[in-house]
Design brief:
The structure holds two protein chains of two kinds. By secondary structure, chain A is of the alpha+beta class. Chain A has 17 helices and 20 strands. In chain A, strands 15-12-14-13-18-20-16 form a seven-stranded antiparallel beta sheet, with helices on both faces. In chain A, strands 5-6-10-8-9 form a five-stranded antiparallel beta sheet. A four-stranded mixed beta sheet of chain A has the order 1-2-4-3. In chain A, β8 (162-168) and β9 (174-177) form a beta hairpin. In chain B, the strands form four sheets. An eight-stranded antiparallel beta sheet of chain B has the order 15-12-14-13-17-18-16-19, sandwiched between helices. In chain B, strands 5-6-10-8-9 form a five-stranded antiparallel beta sheet. In chain B, strands 1-2-4-3 form a four-stranded mixed beta sheet, with helices on one face. The interface between A and B is large, with 82 and 73 residues. The structure holds flavin-adenine dinucleotide (FAD).
């Protein structure tokens, strides 16, 4: 056994390190299945102190570090890097404190999103961001990606709900910013860290804001005979300044996949699109908003509009939406989940462009997306063993992003840049914009060992010291 | 060559003015560029000649900051003004940093939108200044802190390059959120040139409900009961009335009229009899609360520690023969305090600091010292973005 593994094991204990090649296999990619890099070692610290000791050792040895939560990320953020070590938060699953009086919770970074929500619900509270992967993804991963979810339309993405962090820096220094302050004292280090995709350091503890569960929520389902109508309906709801809590569109292929799966929600098979809406709040507020929304829906030739009659129906309608990606496993071996944002007044136009791009390349496309935020998720079906098809998928992905950016949109609404979108960063940013990002990155990690080669394209980091990454530290096989 | 002569070479006379001594700063040359490129020109010259610049928006919040040790010129953003894009169908606004909040409010009200924060002196306060100082508004309870509504910005760095972060979209995670760093950085990291903000629907109507209680504890207890109201008020305030007149609870509601009627009934049932203030005094009180920026002490703490914090401040003040008057925002656990002898607060500040209160205390003219760990990281960020110290601090 090599020396580094031995030293790591002495810090982390026998269960805290994986070096058996068969057990390393699941770590070679994240949700971006088309990219795989073998992991050489996986560290599983139990807490901040162990993580700090581990990072200090890796710093001394000059070894690159990739943080990993549940590996559900879709942009390759948690893909291992050659000659590097993966630090997983899978054994950091303690909910440290739920404080209903001051409405916050402190959790270890590896706590699964839905477990936090469950713990909060005992106090009539909830953690609002609800990625569709919430049954698996971790709060640390949510922080690193500034993740969204259907209810972020009303409540805002992860960053709006993070009140504090404990960060282990690249050299093992522990930065304790866990006290939930109303406003940052000095610069907003916590706000800056959220969304840094593992390139600034490892978050080991997270302080989150909890909000009351709504007194009332109404779930509406509108069925359309064209995707255009569904898009226009959402654009009009936004332009009318209405404030539902979620606005999600599912297209025909998605509906079919969901209805054929265990997530079957009762969406009408055969419809071209459904619009799933939720309005939350109190009596007359919910009634007024629902009424106004129904009026708008009526103007867009719906085949049907209905309201869930009870909690069970509401749960089912949402389970269908949240299970949509999983259900799509039935229609293709692999799914490329693209993620882009467009101005909400231009939904129809960009969805059409997306369809045309995939159609021209003979690719099957399913659309299921956070329409209220203008956050598109064109899901392209493929088989990763078919190289030629993978190339077509990547080309389509690139063209979709280009079209969105040209329409005033952005490269990612919630999945992050990771490895996947490095190439496209200069569609949106000029070299000096990227240079400013690199300067800030270098403050956190001057050696660029934390998740190297992710988020900011290397060529943008003008004075990059590549030698460090190529150097294979002693002790790694 | 002296600085004035050099500035005269670079800038047309209409962009050059004189800054009359105030905010603890001496008389200084003032440059008010009319475009981003000219901001960059000034920064390049400052880097070359080793000047230290003080960045000013409308100057409405500067008085809360400590005066820098040295300053050679003032950079005013007042000339960099105008709406770049108001997108009513998308609910976003992009404007140049020197645009006043009043002008922006007028623009978006016409399209049925509300721009948060609603700050003191909107006819003077500029968007850039509000964001740079992270001044949250009177209606923060409903619309969140200013940093949560900033979608992106363009910032001129000390070397004159103008960089962008974020964008104009309500959802976007492309690249680092550098705008979160600049928000609240008080002009010490870069010059905010343009900001994009998320907008909210303009509430149809507003209503103020009030009640006076003999004891502050009672007013706070009633305020807490109102937290359970399932719709979010604009603001909940508890203030000490003059001359022992009791403690005033104010709840500002906003929304459609049937929602207001429903909420009023709910509050009357749960919290007790509240008076509905006439429209005129609702407006007046809203302005009074909005403009409460001159109090010498502002503080925030965990909600459960509000009473304890207020008691500590009161006790320390009393020990020095001072009487303290509070304006509290119990739902956010923040507040301000004014004192009977405002000329003599240094001793009080020292005494209060000595009690190691479980609260953040912000005295006018001082920055709270960040604890050593985070402080070191902040210093590193400052050095990385402004290595030669162009921005006076
Ligand atoms: C079926 C499905 C549905 C999804 N739906 C949504 C959705 O609705 N909204 C959405 O936003 N995303 C969604 N995602 C994407 C993904 O779930 C999120 O990005 C999630 O936040 C990733 O969490 P994770 O724990 O799996 O992180 P990982 O994938 O393990 O890591 C993600 C990134 O975070 C870094 N990281 C992880 N933990 C830490 C830490 N403790 N400190 C520092 N860096 C860290 C990693 O290095 C990597 O860059 C979905 C994914 C799937 C597979």
């Amino acid at each position: 056994m090599h020396r580094l593994a031995q030293e790591l094991r002495s810090i982390l204990g026998p269960r805290g390190l994986i070096d058996d090649p068969t057990k390393l296999l699941p770590y070679e990619s994240d949700g971006l299945a088309m990219v795989a890099v073998p992991a050489e070692l996986v560290c599983l610290p139990r807490d901040t102190q162990e993580a700090a000791a581990c990072l200090a050792l890796l710093h001394r040895e000059g070894v690159p570090v990739v943080a990993r939560g549940a590996g559900t990320g879709l942009a390759g953020g948690a893909t291992p890097v050659a000659n590097g070590v993966v630090v997983s938060t899978a054994r950091m699953r303690d909910i440290l404190e739920v404080n209903p009086l001051d409405r916050f919770a402190r959790v270890q970074a590896g706590v699964v999103n839905v477990d936090l929500t469950r713990a909060a619900s005992r106090h009539g509270l909830r953690y609002a961001p609800d990625p569709s992967s919430q049954m698996a993804c971790t709060i640390g991963g949510n922080v690193a990606n500034n993740s969204g979810g259907p209810h972020c339309f009303k409540h805002g993405a992860t960053t709006r709900h993070i009140q504090g962090l404990v960060i282990v820096a690249h050299d093992g220094e522990i930065l304790d910013l866990s006290e939930p302050h109303l406003d940052p004292v000095g610069y907003d280090l916590v706000g800056l860290f959220v969304g840094s995709e593992g390139t600034f350091g490892l978050a080991t503890e997270v302080t989150v804001k909890l909000v009351p569960t709504p007194a009332l929520d109404e779930v509406l389902l509108a069925v359309f005979s064209t995707l255009d109508d569904a898009c226009d309906c959402v654009s009009e709801i936004i332009a009318s300044r209405l404030e539902p809590s979620a606005l999600e569109i599912l297209d025909k292929l998605t509906i079919e996949a969901v209805e054929a799966s265990v997530f079957a929600a009762g969406y009408p098979v055969g419809a071209e699109a459904v619009l799933l809406m939720e309005v939350e709040g109190a009596g007359p507020e919910v009634e007024g908003t629902s009424r106004a929304i129904r009026k708008i829906v009526d103007r867009h030739s719906p085949l049907d509009v209905r309201s869930a009659r009870n909690a069970e129906e509401r749960r089912k309608l949402w389970a269908g939406r949240k299970g949509a990606f999983g259900a799509m496993g039935r229609i293709a071996p692999d799914l490329y989940v693209a993620d882009a944002v467009v101005p909400r007044s231009r939904l129809r136009e960009l969805i059409r462009t997306t369809i045309a791009i995939c159609h021209e390349r003979n690719l099957r496309l399913a659309n299921v997306f956070h329409a209220g935020d203008g956050n598109l998720h064109p899901n392209i079906c493929y088989d990763r063993r078919n190289e030629e098809e993978v190339a077509r998928v990547l080309e389509a992905g690139h063209l979709i992003l280009k079209a969105c950016v040209e329409a005033g949109g952005a490269l990612t609404g919630e999945h992050g840049v990771g490895l996947e979108k490095l190439e496209q960063m200069d569609l949106l940013f000029a070299p000096h914009d990227l240079d400013a990002m690199c300067r800030v990155r270098d403050v956190w990690d001057p050696e660029r060992r934390m998740n190297p080669g992710k988020l900011v394209p290397l060529r943008a980091c003008m004075e990059l010291r590549t030698t460090r990454l190529e150097h294979k530290p002693e002790g790694i096989a | 060559m002296n600085i004035e002569a050099r500035l005269g070479e670079i800038f047309p006379s209409e962009e050059l003015q004189h800054f009359r001594a105030r905010f603890g700063l001496p008389d200084l040359p003032l440059v008010a560029p009319r475009c981003e490129e000219r901001v960059a020109d000034l920064l390049k010259a400052a880097a070359q000649d080793g000047w230290k610049l003080v960045v000013l928006g409308g100057g409405s919040t500067f008085s809360r900051s400590p005066s820098p040790a040295r300053a050679d010129a003032v950079l005013s953003l007042a000339g960099l003004s105008g709406v770049t894009a108001y997108e009513p169908r998308d609910g976003t606004l992009t404007a140049l940093a020197g645009t006043t909040m009043a002008q922006l409010e007028e623009t978006v009200h016409a399209g049925g939108h509300h721009l948060s924060p609603e700050v003191a002196r909107p006819e003077v306060a500029t968007l850039g200044g509000v964001v740079a100082s992270a001044s949250s508004g009177f209606e923060r309870l409903r619309f969140g802190a200013v940093r949560e509504n900033v979608l992106g910005m363009r910032v001129a760095l000390c070397n004159g390059s103008v960089v962008k972060s974020g964008g104009r979209l309500v959802k976007n995670v492309t690249g680092y959120d550098l705008h979160r760093l600049f928000c609240g950085s008080n002009g010490t990291l870069g010059v905010i040139c343009e900001v994009s903000m998320r907008l909210y629907p303009l509430p149809e109507a507003t209503r103020l409900l009030t009640s006076v209680y003999p004891r502050r504890e009672a007013a706070l207890a009633k305020a807490r009961e109102s937290f359970e109201l399932p719709i979010s008020p604009l603001a909940i305030a508890v203030s000490d009335l003059a001359d022992g007149g009791g403690h005033l609870l104010e709840i500002f509601l906003a929304g459609r009229s049937e929602v207001l009627a429903w909420a009023t009934e709910w509050l009357n049932e749960r919290v007790g009899d509240l008076n509905t203030a006439p429209a005129e005094s609702t407006r007046e009180r809203r302005h009074i609360l909005r403009d409460d920026v001159r109090a010498p002490l502002r503080f925030h703490c965990r909600p459960s520690r509000l009473e304890e914090t207020v008691a500590t401040i009161e006790r320390c003040a009393e020990a020095q023969g001072q009487e303290a008057r509070f304006l509290l925002n119990p739902a956010l656990a923040e507040g301000t305090a004014r004192f009977s002898n405002p000329a003599n607060l240094e001793q009080l500040a020292v005494a209060l600091g000595g009690t190691r209160p479980a609260a953040t205390l912000l005295w006018t003219g001082t920055f709270p010292a960040p604890t050593p760990g985070p402080g070191r990281w902040m210093e590193k960020l400052r050095t990385a973005l402004d290595p030669t110290g162009v921005f006076a601090s």
